[in-house]
């Protein structure tokens, strides 16, 4: 088994320059998937700089409610932060970044997994490109 053929990788948020306003990813549709792992970076360690997950029934995230116990605080400068939501109750899930101390936020990625139908591919022109190598020989990249 290889990971890239068994997960759907989606960029759900762009880099955000230093500031103190909240940053929310776009909502991820969980129809057909059991879980989603969100990954981003936060540039400045502070107890008020953290991520959390939220879920709701609306595709635009307008009814998103925080998930209990999902808060992950940035303790390093910079630090990659992740949250894995397995079997969410509502259909749409998003990542939220709280910024109390001015900090930049890296791109936000969602890795949906345990899909009932495997993803067609993870390449999105201008956003996400990669390749799968199976038993590759050594040589020129």
Could you characterize what this model shows?
The chain has strands at residues 7-13, 16-19, 23-24, 28-29, 35-42, 50-56, 65-66, 72-73, 79-86, 92-98, 103-105, 108-113. The chain is built from no helices and twelve strands. The protein has a single domain (7-113), classed as Jelly Rolls (Sandwich). The two termini are 23 Å apart. The mean pLDDT is 92. It has 141 residues and is mainly β.
Distance between the termini: 23 Å
| Poorly predicted runs | none
Given the C-alpha coordinates, what overall shape results? globular
CATH class value: Mainly Beta
Strand content: 35-45%
Overall pLDDT: 92
Give Rg in angstroms: 16 Å
Q: What class do helices, strands and sheet pairing give?
A: mainly beta
Which fold name is given in CATH as the topology?
Jelly Rolls
The CATH level-2 architecture is identified as Sandwich
Question: How many structural domains does the protein architecture include?
Answer: 1
Give the helices and strands as they follow along the chain: EEEEEEEEEEEE
| Total number of strands | 12
Number of helices: 0
Largest sheet: 6 strands, antiparallel
Helix fraction, binned, reads under 10%
Q: Which features would summarize this protein structure in a list?
A:
141 residues; mainly beta; Jelly Rolls; six-stranded antiparallel β-sheet; four-stranded antiparallel β-sheet; 12 strands
How is this structure best summarized?
This protein is mainly beta. Helix content is 0%, strand content 41%.
């Amino acid at each position: 088994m290889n990971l890239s053929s068994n997960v759907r990788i989606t960029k759900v948020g762009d880099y955000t320059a230093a500031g103190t306003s909240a940053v929310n990813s776009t909502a991820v549709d969980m129809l057909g998937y059991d879980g989603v792992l969100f990954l981003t970076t936060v540039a400045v360690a502070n107890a008020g700089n953290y991520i959390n997950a939220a879920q709701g029934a609306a595709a635009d995230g307008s009814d998103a409610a925080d998930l209990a116990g999902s808060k992950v605080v940035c303790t390093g400068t910079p630090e990659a932060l992740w949250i894995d939501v397995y079997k969410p109750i509502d259909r749409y899930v998003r990542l939220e970044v709280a910024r109390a101390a001015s900090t930049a936020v890296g791109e936000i990625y969602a890795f949906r997994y345990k899909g009932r139908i495997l993803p067609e591919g993870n390449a999105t022109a201008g956003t996400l490109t990669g390749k799968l190598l199976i038993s590759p020989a050594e040589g020129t990249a």
